[in-house]
Amino acid sequence: MKGDRVEIVIDAGGATRTYDIEATRAGRRVDVTHGRGVVEVTETTRGGTPVRTARFMAGRVLALVEHPAPRRAPDDAEVTPLRKSA
To answer: Highest taxon of the source (predicted)?
Structure first.
């Protein structure tokens, strides 16, 4: 979903670097996979076509934080506030 974001913090030899991968258009999502010593973050379309990919060595990754886009629950609009009885 547009607005989904993944923040990756990497150890760069005594310093840290931060990378942000974000779903930039409606219908795109950000997928995270890891295996064989590699962390891969990919922005994909609805059909599953990768738009951009970032790969990091798993041993260098200090933090990987997923920030989902704010989503409105469908039930929020139907809730009425409670009123104090007399």
So the answer is: Bacteria
Biggest CA pair distance of the chain: 68
**Residue 17 structure tokens:** 């670097």
Which strand ranges, in their side-by-side order, compose the sheet holding 16-22? 16-22, 5-11, 61-67
Residue 48 belongs to some domain of the structure? yes
Number of independent structural domains in the chain: 1
DSSP at 45: -
CB atoms within 10 A of CB 38: 13
Start-to-end C-alpha separation, the chain: 46
Residue 78 belongs to a domain: no
Query: Quick one: pLDDT at residue 57?
Result: 92
Mean pLDDT of all residues in 38-55: 90
Model pTM? 0.70
